[in-house]
């Protein structure tokens, strides 16, 4: 969903960039055509050339700034995608660990040990924060994993929000 927003914003900026570029080129060409069509005194012709040069310079500066902005937004969109992927892997592993605890999976099984070993660094700050009720047969409702999951979702949203702020910095046109 965030990637779609970033892609839409990037395409909007590309269209806006093209529109501004075309408008400035049109203005410069119209100014040049106007000066060519009318017989102007020598002093006015030099002034028109100066104004046309200023328009050209402004158009080039605008294109360079917009290209830089679009490139930065693309880079931040790629960073956002990588961060999303990392968090989704963490969410999946937490969900798997929660499900294994709920199903009373054997702790000696290799897969269970792998999931526990991979999630432990992310789970450690939340271990013991709330109790984990157990049922007969070793079924455990691991509430600290639920708390950790919620905390990581909030962290994920905060990071994506920050990246969105950086990617969509307003520029004057």
Q: Give the beta-strand count.
A: 0
Multimerization state? single chain
Note the beta-strand portion: under 5%
- Radius of gyration, in angstroms, nearest whole number: 29 Å
| Main beta-sheet annotation | none
How much is the average pLDDT?
84
Structural shape: rod-shaped
Order of helices and strands: HHHH
What's the N-to-C terminus distance? 28 Å
Helix content: over 70%
pLDDT under 50 segments (min length 5)? none
Q: Which structural category do the helix and sheet elements fall into?
A: mainly alpha
Q: What do you see in this structure?
A:
With 173 residues, this protein is an all-alpha fold. The protein is 79% helix and 0% strand. The chain has helices at residues 2-37, 42-102, 110-123, 143-167. Helix 1 (2-37) packs antiparallel against helix 2 (42-102), helix 2 crosses helix 3 (110-123) and helix 2 packs antiparallel against helix 4. The longest helix is centred in the middle third of the chain and has 61 residues, at 42-102. The protein is rod-shaped. The chain starts with a helix and ends in a 6-residue tail after the last helix. The relative contact order is 0.12. The model has no long low-confidence stretch (mean pLDDT 84).
Question: What layout of secondary structure does this protein have?
Answer:
Elements: H1 2-37, H2 42-102, H3 110-123, H4 143-167
Question: Would you kindly provide a brief summary of this structure?
Answer:
With 173 residues, the protein is mainly alpha-helical. The protein is 79% helix and 0% strand. The longest helix is centred in the middle third of the chain and has 61 residues, at 42-102.
């Amino acid at each position: 969903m965030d990637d779609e927003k970033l892609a839409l914003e990037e395409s909007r900026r590309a269209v806006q960039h093209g529109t501004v570029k075309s408008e400035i080129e049109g203005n410069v060409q119209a100014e040049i055509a106007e000066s060519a069509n009318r017989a102007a005194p020598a002093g006015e012709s030099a002034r028109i050339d100066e104004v046309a040069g200023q328009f050209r310079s402004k158009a080039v500066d605008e294109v360079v700034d917009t290209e830089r902005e679009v490139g930065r937004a693309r880079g931040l969109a790629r960073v956002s995608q990588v961060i999303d992927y990392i968090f989704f892997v963490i969410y999946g592993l937490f969900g798997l660990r929660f499900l294994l605890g709920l199903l009373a999976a054997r702790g000696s099984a290799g897969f269970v040990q792998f999931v526990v070993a991979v999630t432990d660094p992310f789970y450690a700050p939340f271990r013991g924060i709330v109790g984990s009720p157990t049922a007969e047969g070793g079924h455990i409702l691991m509430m600290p994993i639920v708390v950790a999951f919620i905390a990581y979702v909030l962290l994920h949203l905060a990071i994506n929000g920050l990246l969105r702020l950086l990617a969509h910095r307003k520029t004057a046109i």
